[in-house]
């Protein structure tokens, strides 16, 4: 058939869902949404960039939920478990209404890293929660920007060590990533270039 009234087919949608996004029912769209993780050490611009990119692409943004639960780095195992559960659930919620991509500020690997630093242990459930979400792309933010203190940041003297740790956590899992560095404009250009490639595959 010519498909003159509805110029699309299931095959075309599967091959390039974003090109035919308006033909995909809302309940099906979460299956195709690309989950992007803005990842790395503190004070590298992840949160600002994730919110900015979400705004540019008119989509949803998942914040670092830990900041809604704690105001200091004095927290318990129960606290970190609540944070892990909440972070996971927030991704599940936001992906339902995301527009093609979902910008996520942090992941469960990050929760594990800080659990190890501040509690010297990682509850098994954080590893279990990690397995529930697969990110389609990781942006690893470099430390080549000024460190800015706030109420929770206290690892400014260990920036290189933390960057290496975050990087190794991806590598040990065989997760591919892209290092984001340079000025704000350079970082934004790098992020947008990759997202355009994800949204418009050859």
Give an overview in words.
By secondary structure, the protein is an alpha/beta fold. It contains nine helices and five strands. The protein has helices at 10-15, 29-32, 46-56, 66-69, 77-94, 108-119, 124-130, 159-172, 184-199; strands at 34-39, 60-62, 101-105, 137-141, 178-180. A five-stranded parallel β-sheet has the order 2-3-1-4-5, sandwiched between helices. Helix 8 (159-172) links the parallel strand 4 and strand 5 (178-180). It is globular, with a radius of gyration of 18 Å.
Q: Which sheet architecture does the biggest sheet show?
A: 5 strands, parallel
Given the structure, what is the number of helices?
9
The total count of strands amounts to 5
SS class: alpha/beta
Topology:
Elements: H1 10-15, H2 29-32, E1 34-39, H3 46-56, E2 60-62, H4 66-69, H5 77-94, E3 101-105, H6 108-119, H7 124-130, E4 137-141, H8 159-172, E5 178-180, H9 184-199
Parallel strand pairs: 1-3, 1-4, 2-3, 4-5
Helix pairs in contact: 5-6, 5-7, 6-7
Short account of what is shown:
The chain is an alpha/beta fold and 202 residues long.
Keywords:
5-stranded parallel β-sheet; 202 residues; 9 helices; alpha/beta; 46% helix; globular
